[in-house]
Amino acid sequence: MPIYEYKCKACEHRLEKLQRMSDDALKDCPECGKPALTKLVSATSFKLKGTGWYETDFKGSKKEKPAESKSEKSSTTSKASDVTVKS
Questions:
Q1: C-alpha torsion sign, points 33, 34, 35, 40
Q2: 32-36: which pairs have CB atoms within 8 A and are 24 or more residues apart?
Q3: What is the CATH T-level fold of the domain 1-42, as seen in this structure?
Q4: Rounded to two decimals, what is the model's pTM?
Q5: Which of 15, 37, 56, 84 has minimal CB crowding within 10 Å?
Q6: What confidence tens digit (pLDDT) does each residue in 70-82 have?
C-alpha cells in the first residue's frame, strides 16, 4: 500500500496516510477540521537500479549459436569421404 501525503489549504498542516490505491482521498483536515486537504505529489521511496529495466540493456546481448559437437563434425566429414565418383 502506498503512503500518500496531504496538505491542508486552510491551516497548512501536512500529514502522511497509508492507504489503498482504491481508497477515496482524504478531505477533512485532522487539525482544523475543514474540508481543505489536497493530495501532494512526491518522490517515490524506491529506485529501479540494475540491468534489465531499459530497452537498450538488451540490444548488445546477441546469443551465439551452440558449437557443433565432435560427433556431428566427424559424421559430416566421413560422409563426404565415402562418396565415390564413377566415370
A1: negative
A2: 32/8, 34/8, 34/10, 36/8, 36/9, 36/10, 36/11
A3: Rubrerythrin, domain 2 (2.20.28)
A4: 0.50
A5: 84
A6: 555 555 554 555 5
